[in-house]
Structure formats: C-alpha cells, structure tokens
Design goal:
The structure holds two protein chains of two kinds.
Chain A lengths: L3 H4 L16 H18 L1 H21 L11 H31 L1 H6 L5 H30 L8 H25 L6 H18 L11 H7 L3 H13 L15 H22 L9
Chain B lengths: L16 E12 L2 E12 L3 E5 L6 H8 L7 E6 L9 H4 L2 E4 L11 H9 L8 H7 L15 H13 L5 E5 L7 H16 L3 E6 L2 H7 L2 E6 L2 E6 L12 E7 L2 E7 L2 H12 L7 E3 L3 H13 L2
Parallel strand pairs in B: 3-7, 3-8, 5-6, 6-7
Antiparallel strand pairs in B: 1-2, 1-4, 8-9, 10-11, 10-12
Helix pairs in contact in B: 3-4
Classes of the chains: A mainly alpha, B alpha/beta.
Chain lengths: 284, 296
C-alpha cells in the first residue's frame, strides 16, 4: 500500500495544523509531576520510606550511645553517614520495585502504546526518586545535626564532596534499580526479590555495622557495589580526619569512591539498555 | 443508535485503507498462533474480529498495534509498518487496553489531562471525560471506580490524542447489559466522527450492533469475512417458518418463506397462530464457522 492511499482523513479527525510532537523533556516533566503525586498518595509506603532510616538511626543511636575509643567520633555519627548512603540507595529499591509493578499493572504496556518517548518515562522516575532521596537526606541530616552532635561541615570542599558522592550515588543506584526491575517474575514478588539483597548489602557495606569490624572477605564483596563507597564518601564529609582510623584503609580513598561510583553509573546504563523489558516475561 | 451513513461507490473513503494485512503469520515455539491472515480495513469503518479464545485474535491485533513482532507477512497500519513504530505514527493511534490497572492514585481528570500532554493535537480533556460519561467522577481517584467506569477511563485515554484509528480489545467484557448498551453508544458516536475502529469481541450481538464488517478468526485463520447480515451466507441461508397447529409447534425450512407464509395464510384464512420467520442468527453462523475450522 502506498503512503498516499492512507494519507487522507475525515474532517473530524484531521489535525488542526501545527501538530508537532511534544518534546521528550516536556513529557518527562509531566511524568515527573504524576509520578511524584502517585508516590505521595501511596501514603503508607511514602511514610515508610521516610521514617525507616530515621527509626533505624534512633534505635542504633540509642543502643550504641558511646564513642569510638580515642577518636571523639560517636557511633550515631557513623550511623548518620551510613544511613545517608542507604537513603540514597533506596533509589535502587524504589525503581526496581516500582518499574516491576508498572510492568505488571499495565502502566508500561499502556505507555508503550502512546507517543511517549521512553526517555520521558525514565526522566519521570528519576525525578521522583531524586526528590524522595533528597527529602530523606534532609530529614536525616536535620536530625543528625539537632540530636546526634553531627558536626556541620564548615568548608565548601566537604559539601562539594557530599554533592558529587550523592549525585554519582543516586545515578548509579537508579540505573542499577532499572536494570534489577527485570529480575522479579511479577510485580507482586518484586518487593521480596529486591529487598532481601538490599538489606544484606546494607549490613556488609557498613551502614549498620562499622566496616572495620567486618571480615575482610565480606568487605571485598561489598566493594563491588556502590553502597560501601557512598557510605565511605559520606563519612569523609561528616566525620572528617577524626574518623580516619575507623576506615579499613585508614583513608577515605575518595579517588576510588569516584571511580567505583562512576563505573556503576556507566555499567548501570549498559545494564539498563541491554536488559530492560517493557513487557512482563509472560507476555514474551 | 442512529444508523450511520452506508458506504457508497463514490465515497472517497471506499478507496482508502486504514489497515492492510497480507499473509500474516506468527508462531510461539511449536504453536501456530496466526497462520496466514489477510485483512483490509477501510478508513472510517468499524471492523470486528470475532473468534474463540486462543484463535489468534489478540496476537493479530497486538501485531497491528506494534506490540508484537511477526514472523511473516506484510502489514501496513495507517501507511506504516507496525514492526517499526514511530512516535508520529503512535500519535495517530488510540489503543484501549483490555486489562490495565494502572494510575490508581490519580484522579480521572489528572490522568486524562496527563495523557493529553503526550499528543501533538489532543482533544479537550474535559470534553473527553464528558463524552465517556465520567463528569461526575472526574475528581475521583481511579482506585475508587467500578470496573465499567474504569473501562471508560481506558476509552478516554484511547481517544484523547484524536486518533484516526482506535483499537478496542474486548471492550465490554464483564459489563452489565445497561453498561454495555451505553458503551456501544459511545463507540457508535466515535464511528460517527469518522474514526476507524478495530474491535475484538466474543459477543456476537456486539459485533452485530457495532460493526460494518466482521471477520471470524478460528485456528489462526480467517474463517469468514463480511457484513454481519450476510456473513457466512447468512442472508442466503434457508429461513425457518414456524407456527402452531392443533396444539403442536410446526416448522418448515425453506428458501421461499414468503410463499410458505402465503400458503399458511390461505389455509388458516387469516391470522396464523404463533407465526415466526427466522434466519440463522449470527451466533448460529459463527458456531458453524468455528466448528468447521476446528474439524478441518
């Protein structure tokens, strides 16, 4: 069939001139708005996501109220840094579960049938996790500064470190989350499939247990993943030189933090592009 | 429902094809889902695909929608190969999904407005909501809607982009009779606008009420195609004349029911008790076709 035989349309369906496709960025922004609305309207899960790290901080801060000998660093300060890392990495959890659910409930199928560019979908998801991670970080820091004697970093260099660790960390985590969303067989199983490895990762990456007290082989495993490096980066920001003796390498190794997190951003991108599925496994 | 203007030979849309399919085939492993289908759907036509579950209806439609790849055959939908979908092409289609369950926490108005942002020339969201009869529910979360209301949201999202071609996959499954009737009126009004509609259904009355033409798919092939009134030789089939005589129901199958009725009329000298003249229903024809295909 030639193009010309299908070109004409009747008056009612004719385009009213102009008719340019909206840009991916504009639609991405519209997605970001509805994703954020949906996120906050799922009240129980939104409250859980924000309350979880705070409750963990209070529990661990209460149980281990002392200082690390000879450092002047309190256990709670280490937890704030670690929970910040875990908070950033919830981008991984949110996306891995959220996209698996979108695949299950028909969201992805519906979107795939519209002129929505794929990138707009991801812009929307990214904006939503960026916002919720930012809120988590602000809450944790506010509580840390107010109740746990977390020193407020005075120099701009520390805040620069905070910014790039957070930015690389959230990007790497988000991309890894998108890739991991293809693993669960269904939206219903996603929470279980994703949460378990994430909790294990938190324990071996120095979120709940100081990294220097972990066996070397566990640290080596944790070193393959971004969480350990994010926590390390955040410790460098908030503990400073006083906490150096608590590090495995007696250094914050910021160059390696940048290297590993950067590699995860690139690797996560490749993983996303090669593994992402718009359909569930059953749909083939 | 208001009858639509019938097609005439000088109707320009007669020569314009919205969907053209030649030799379409698709296998899943060893199973042949679609085995050589040809279809021509004209611009502005309401076309129904009938068939039992597993006959290849959904596979065929999903290939046309650009959701699935095909193994063989030529397919053109609005002049584009759906195997290579573009955004501009997608903007001209409306797909009403069978089992979407998404966006539960958004309101009807938010959802329809949001989908409008995807298209170059969308309809007015409030008009679309009114058109599908959800004005009173516009501010409700989708989670709170009934099944039928939810399908109306699906239709709203399918037509918000001012599509030239709408796909409706079993749109009234699970509806009560009144909701179905209202839904038919909605589809009919879209057809009045000149939108081409491709509908799959297993309700024969639905196909008969809505479709200009019908194709019956059985075992991955087209078993018959035509207007609902003449499908499978329905118009030419023998009529059944039935009446009551001496307290017994009598029936005669005949090619000339008028003559039979005239003879009866003479015999009874006036009113014939409990007279009926029936042709095979679409359902009779359909079941014959489907069973014929199964026994081939």
């Amino acid at each position: 069939m030639s193009e010309s035989t299908t070109a004409a349309v009747t008056a009612d369906t004719a385009r009213r001139g102009g008719g340019e496709l909206p840009s991916a960025l504009r639609i991405g922004w519209a997605r970001a708005v509805v994703e954020t609305k949906m996120f906050f309207r799922e009240k129980d899960s939104a409250i859980f996501i924000f309350a979880f790290p705070i409750i963990m901080l209070i529990i661990f801060g209460t149980i281990f109220s002392g200082q690390f000998e000879g450092t002047g660093v309190t256990v709670s300060q280490v937890y704030v840094a670690g929970l910040l890392g875990a908070g950033v990495m919830t981008a991984f959890q949110s996306l891995a579960i959220g996209i698996a659910v979108d695949r299950e409930d028909g969201t992805l199928k519906r979107l795939a049938g519209t002129p929505l560019p794929r990138s707009s979908y991801f812009i929307g998801k990214a904006a939503q996790v960026l916002l919720s991670s930012a809120i988590q970080a602000v809450l944790l820091l506010a509580i840390g500064f107010a109740f746990y004697d977390l020193p407020v970093p005075a120099d701009a260099g520390r805040w620069m470190t905070f910014a790039w660790v957070a930015l690389l960390g959230i990007n790497g985590s988000a991309l890894l989350g998108v890739a991991a969303s293809s693993l669960p067989r269904s939206g219903r199983s996603a929470a279980a499939v994703v949460t378990m490895p994430f909790v294990v990762l938190q324990f071996i990456s120095g979120v709940y247990i100081p990294i220097s007290t972990l066996p070397e082989w566990l640290v080596r495993i944790a070193s393959f993943f971004p969480l350990k490096w994010m926590c390390q980066g955040f410790r460098s920001v908030f503990l400073g030189d006083a906490g150096l003796s608590l590090e495995v390498a007696k250094s914050y190794e910021l160059d390696r933090v940048a290297l590993v997190l950067g590699a995860w951003v690139l690797g996560g991108l490749v993983l996303c592009l090669t593994t992402f599925r718009w359909k569930s496994r059953r749909d083939g | 429902m208001v009858p639509r203007r019938p097609y005439t030979d000088d109707d320009r849309s007669m020569t314009q094809t919205a969907v053209k399919v030649r030799g379409l085939a698709k296998r899943y492993g060893d199973v042949r889902a679609v085995g050589g289908i040809d279809l021509d759907i004209r611009q502005g036509e309401v076309f129904a695909i009938l068939g039992p579950n597993g006959a290849g209806k959904s596979t065929t439609v999903e290939i046309l929608e650009g959701y699935r790849t095909r193994d063989a055959g030529e397919v053109s939908v609005l002049g584009t190969d759906p195997g290579r979908p573009t955004r501009a092409w997608r903007a001209r289609l409306g797909i009403v999904l069978q089992t979407a369950n998404d966006a539960a926490e958004l309101t009807v108005r938010e959802t329809v407005r949001h989908f409008a942002t995807y298209y170059p020339d969308p309809r007015d969201p409030d008009e679309v909501i009114a058109r599908v009869g959800l004005e009173e529910k516009a501010g409700s979360r989708i989670r709170q809607l009934s099944g039928g209301q939810r399908r109306r949201v699906d239709v709203a999202l399918g037509i918000i982009g001012r599509p030239e071609l709408i796909f409706l996959d079993e749109p009234t499954t699970g509806f009560d009779p009144e909701a179905r009737r209202r839904f038919w009126e909605l589809i009919d009004s879209l057809a009045h606008d000149g939108t081409t509609i491709l509908l799959t259904t297993h309700y024969l009355d639905e196909a008969e009420a809505l479709a200009d033409r019908v194709a019956v798919i059985a075992r991955g092939r087209i078993a018959a195609e035509g207007e609902p009134a003449t499908l499978g030789g329905r118009a030419a089939a023998k009529a059944t004349v039935a009446w009551a005589e001496d307290g017994v129901r009598r029936t005669v199958k005949t090619d000339e029911p008028t003559r039979t009725v005239a003879e009866l009329s003479r015999r009874f000298d006036g009113e014939i008790p409990e007279l009926t003249v029936t042709r095979p229903t679409l359902e009779d024809i359909y079941l014959d076709l489907v069973q014929g295909a199964t026994h081939e």
